[in-house]
Amino acid sequence: MSTKIICIANPNGGVGKTAIAACLAHSLSVKGGRVLLIDPHPQGQSAIALGRSPEPGVFYLLTMGMSQQETNFINSWVFCSGREGLHILPGDQQTMAAQTVLSAQDKPVSAIRQTVSRFFKEGPYILFDTAPSVGGTLREERTVWASDLVIVPTATEFLSADGVGKVLGIMSILPTFYDEQTCESKATIEDLEQRFASSLLPPIHCSTLLREWAARGRTIFEMNELCRAAREYQALAQIVLKY
């Protein structure tokens, strides 16, 4: 099985990117595949949510070369998340400085896929949890180019859904914070179905547990593996496995 690169991308914040990245990564790892979650957020949100500290691993990944010595050094920043099969390469504030380095090195748009190719023998899935408005380093044109599958989360509200068509290279749209009791959520889903029927994924409903998981450093499966949110993420993982 060849390695698949999955990007969770939306330039807007507050749409659930980190929850999707962490919960999808955990679900895929539970199903038996080694997963590497790359966390380029300057605040290290995925790392923190999984109970680890922000680290400069992503900066080194983006700015160092492909020699065996450099690869060994980068691998030293890949940590076990405490969950079998799920590893994380954390980022921190230094990630922002990588843009300056990449610009100085004049690296092409293909640079991200090339640099993560060093991990292809390690396992079947690499996930990017992109940060909002991080500039040219990990903007959608770079991560989308690097990825085999792009998941674009959008909150089921008008302004969030209205901007989803502007994301470069949309492949799969994932509605989040869906509340079937509200007219706005229903109307947004109907609009998305009309605009992106062939690429629309089943929605992730609003959930108290999804609001609390990151603060507890536990994924939705560790909070309650039988709850609706857990079942929805398991269903999402099944779709990804078939891709």
What does this structure look like?
- The chain is α/β, with parallel strands linked by helices and 243 residues long.
- The chain has twelve helices and seven strands.
- It has a seven-stranded mixed sheet, sandwiched between helices.
- It is globular, with a radius of gyration of 17 Å.
- 43% of the residues are buried.
- About 2% of the residues have low confidence.
What is this entry, summarized?
With 243 residues, this protein is α/β, with parallel strands linked by helices. The chain has helices spanning 17-30, 45-49, 57-63, 68-75, 94-105, 111-116, 140-146, 158-162, 183-196, 208-216, 220-224, 228-242; strands spanning 4-8, 35-38, 79-83, 86-89, 125-129, 149-155, 172-176.
Primary descriptors:
243 residues; Rossmann fold; 7 strands
Which helices and strands, and how do they pair?
Elements (H helix, E strand, L loop, with lengths): L3 E5 L8 H14 L4 E4 L6 H5 L7 H7 L4 H8 L3 E5 L2 E4 L4 H12 L5 H6 L8 E5 L10 H7 L2 E7 L2 H5 L9 E5 L6 H14 L11 H9 L3 H5 L3 H15 L1
Parallel strand pairs: 1-5, 1-6, 2-4, 2-5, 6-7
Antiparallel strand pairs: 3-4
